[in-house]
Amino acid sequence: MNFTAAGREPPAGLIAGLVPSSVFASNGKMPDVPSPAALDGRSSDELLVAIARDRDKDAFGLLFGRMGPRLKAYLLRSGIAPSQADELVQEVMLMVWHRADTFDPARAMASTWIFTIARNKRIDAARRDRRPEFDPEDPALVPDQPAAADRSIEQAEASARLRDAIAKLPAEQADLLRLAYFEDQPHSAIARHKGLPLGTVKSRLRLALERLRRELAGS
């Protein structure tokens, strides 16, 4: 949808004051790839904690620029119309802003927590549309029930073991691993951001994964 032609504010109007307009494309839509600024040194977990603790608008802008394009791609793949995807992305991120204090890094990564919100927003949007071909009782679209207590403990322990194993990696390997697997950044983008040859990035990631497997197997 062209918001300017329709006489409406572009999507950025929904989050005015929280996200710089440079996050959006010139047509007022969410870009398809994260902005270069989104490759901040902090992890998404750290950005989300800063939002919860300090109501940090700069951290929120970075998180929005990093997660927005990924959320949009997810919504488009799940059948949401392009004209609706940008607005849903902002609804998701507004909820992230308002509910950041409920995020628990010991239970889930920031990206997992945010995508869970997006999944539920997608289900709500589909139900509102009341499309004949959509079955709101489809089990695949019903939000997951809370995990059993023992399962939650197992997940927390597994997450703790993984964090401990990553902490034992050399700093340059741990950093590349976080960007590639936790922030979902392409190897080529990491190479440009770090000023490293692409082959170096790939070889360090291989070494990091080998060490991580050995460490986790030993634990």
TrEMBL record:
Residues 63-131 form the RNA polymerase sigma-70 region domain. One of its GO terms (biological process) is DNA-templated transcription initiation. Residues 127-150 are annotated as: Disordered. Pfam families: Sigma70_r2, Sigma70_r4_2. Residues 161-212 form the RNA polymerase sigma factor 70 region 4 type domain. GO terms for molecular function: DNA binding; sigma factor activity. InterPro entries: RNA_pol_sigma-70-like (IPR039425), RNA_pol_sigma-70_dom (IPR014284), RNA_pol_sigma70_ECF_CS (IPR000838), RNA_pol_sigma70_r2 (IPR007627), RNA_pol_sigma70_r4_t2 (IPR013249), RNA_pol_sigma_r2 (IPR013325), RNA_pol_sigma_r3/r4-like (IPR013324), WH-like_DNA-bd_sf (IPR036388). The keyword DNA repair does not apply. PANTHER family: RNA POLYMERASE ECF-TYPE SIGMA FACTO (PTHR43133), RNA POLYMERASE SIGMA FACTOR SIGZ (PTHR43133:SF62). Belongs to the sigma-70 factor family. ECF subfamily. NCBIfam families: sigma70-ECF (TIGR02937). This is RNA polymerase sigma factor. It comes from Skermanella aerolata.
